[in-house]
Amino acid sequence: MNKLGAGCVCPVITAPARARLLGILTPVARAKSIRKRRFVEPERAPDAPLDDLVEDGLLIANAGVRMTVRNLIIVRALRDGADYDEGWYVDAVKHEFRALAAEKRADAERVAADHDTAMERPGRASHVSDYRSRDAPTLDRRSASLFGVADRLEAEGEDDELATVLVQIAREAALDEIASAIGPSVQPSADYLSARKDRMELVARDLAMLQLGDPDL
After folding, report:
1. Which residues does 207 contact at the CB level (< 8 Å), separation at least 6?
2. Rounded to two decimals, what is the model's pTM?
3. Which residues contact 143 (CB under 8 A, 6 or more apart)?
């Protein structure tokens, strides 16, 4: 039916024209619109200072050493029936630090080799481990932070006082773990509970001062 009135001829509206009038993009027009859009790369967040990366790596390593020694104390006490020997555990902590240092240094050397290879390879990567020249700055920072962590761990591996403090913290954690595993039949004395907080505060203070290199310790 002619809705424009008698004597008027309705124009023929094609499907693309109808779509434009209705604000709908046809598949072809939609594809052209997408191709015209320009990708805007988001701003890159500033890199963290190298010293912060080293400190973070060192904190993670120290936590791992404490957990390893805690587990060792538990196993030797419950499975082997060994008496607590602080000197033995101090040596174990130092050995663990040296082993971690060797591991981090090997990782640093591997990343440094990847950096040297990437410097000679322009273009885009084809997979995650396919490093190119554009990845060189990131690889350089990564290797530098790993070398820094390795150096600090080697120094901690020669520090008897730091190792002693870590052993004391690990022993407290081991005692708590053993008490929890045995159950409510074993209750620590009131004196132990009241003094535990003070002991842990002193241990934490000594650890912080050792890491800062306080000459009074």
Report:
1. 162, 165, 166, 169
2. 0.63
3. 108, 109, 111, 112, 115
